[in-house]
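Our working data are protein records whose layout never changes between entries. The record below serves as our worked example for the rest of this section:
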Amino acid sequence: VEGPPLQQIKVIQRNARHLEGMINELLDLSQMESGRFEITKAPFDFVALVHESLESSQPQFEAMNQSVQFNPSADVLLVNGDRARLIQVVNNLLNNASKYSPKESDIDIDVRAVDRWLSFEVSDRGPGVPDGDLKDLFEMFHRVDNETTRRVPGTGIGLHVSKRIVTEHGGDISLSPREDGGAIAVFRIPLGLNGLD
């Protein structure tokens, strides 16, 4: 008996990742509501984390024929943080950039250390963010209501959870429109390597 074609396997992988992400978001939300949401910090290489996230996101980018450009300012950027939690944030921002961008578009990723801060930025070519929605984007269950977002599945939990993770690291996160269309998602956290605070 022949196995399923490679394309079907990729669809199964993509759907499994999507389902796993939704389950994890709901579990995180439950922990937040019950006061059991914890951040455990340890030093790690953030550039390696982004490479890992890109590798797991590759089937989604390939399905959309999207080109991803990753431009870290260094080969290694050490940060003191919760690796498992921060990869959730990176995964969420990459997933959003892909699913809201058109096929065959470019997604740009930038990682750099500025003073004592680590900055992670994802820039896409999607529909952008209406000004009226900017203040509510990180509220629980909020989704921008337009033709594009109605076609894209989502729970409205991912950005809320991401903000909580970044805030617990002493950082900030924002989403803003690109001048030439699309959106830019940025989060910053302290490098925290002096005394591993």
In short: The longest strand covers residues 106-114. The chain has a mean pLDDT of 81. The beta strands are 42-45, 67-72, 78-81, 106-114, 117-123, 172-177, 183-190.
